[in-house]
Amino acid sequence: MSVQPGWYVDPADTETRRYWDGEGWLGAPIPVDATPPDGPPPPEPVTPPEPPTPPTSGQTSPGPVAPGWPPHQGPQPGPQPGYGPPPGHGPGWGPQAGPPGWGPQGGPPGWAPPGDQSAGTPPAGQPGWAPPAGQPGWAPPAGHPGWAIRPPEPRPHGLRLAGYGRRLAARLIDLALLLALNVVVNGWFVWRWAQEWAPYWQELFRRAARGDTSAEGLPVPGEQAGSLLVVILLIATALWLAFEVPAMAAGGQTVGKRVMRIRAVPMAADQPLGFGRALSRWSTLGLPTLLWYCAGIGLVLQFVDSLSPLWDHPLRQALHDKRAQTVVVEVPYRPASAPSNDRDQPPGDTP
């Protein structure tokens, strides 16, 4: 999901705001406490380059000539060292010449007058004209084709986005705790389900040891095997719901997220998720557990959801984050003795 265009606090300088057009920053920053205008900022005026100084008589290597500066049009009064008509020209010679080594119409080497297409570039001030690349301070205008600018990483509510490694570690911690709960609550049902399937697997392994690959005459699991599997999945889903939703609704953190110092927050404001948003977020990832019964389709859906932050930019949202409109951010470390200061964060959100 992309960030909507608007005025946001600049992550690089929290004392200013800038306009985000959905792909990059646009225009000059304004003070963070100033009222931003409606819509994008007006285009910045283009300052024309300062014309260089024409060469003087004492210069041996003249610099660039400003457009519109009159070049030498012929011999000047008085002696000019190295200046004169080319061989073979008689009296009356004048325009279109200059000192040896100078360009057309008396300009310095490589110079072309305004409107002369021999230089290969349009005159200064004409559409498409730009100072040559490589000059000090030169840069293509904003939005220029090929001007690749990587926008800064979004910081929702002034907090850094959580990396995938920390999110994965938090999820594995939670799954380990859920597995321990299932051993206690769901263990008897799992043992009974395994007993229903035991004759089938034992006979299959005995035939495999003899090299027999036939499937005829294999014991059939009992009628209770399917019912036990449904009960096991229902209990596992209920345990996951009770483990995650209340904790996420209150503080945006499960046990694993607390250990890894990350939490989920709404995109709209830095506040608790609430039960409805927490339930919507969990259901996208947790309810497919019931579909494990259908050839493991639920497990595939959960696997894709878990990997989705790897290719989502710029907010690194999983599919369950997109449904609940949440993002996962890092919890800044604050020493216990350090008093909290709400003035550290300027008003307004960053994209």
Automatic annotation (TrEMBL):
Ranges of Low complexity composition bias in the record: 113-128
Alphabetized InterPro entries for the sequence: Pra-immunoreactive, RDD
Alphabetic keyword roster: Cell membrane, Membrane, Transmembrane, Transmembrane helix
Record region (Disordered): 19-151
Descriptive protein name: RDD family protein
Domain RDD residues, every copy: 162-324
Bias-annotated ranges (Pro residues): 37-55, 64-89, 97-112, 129-143
Pfam families cross-referenced by the UniProt entry: RDD (PF06271)
Bilayer topology annotation: Multi-pass membrane protein
Transmembrane intervals: 168-191, 228-251, 285-304
Domain of life according to the entry: Bacteria
Localization per Swiss-Prot or TrEMBL: Cell membrane
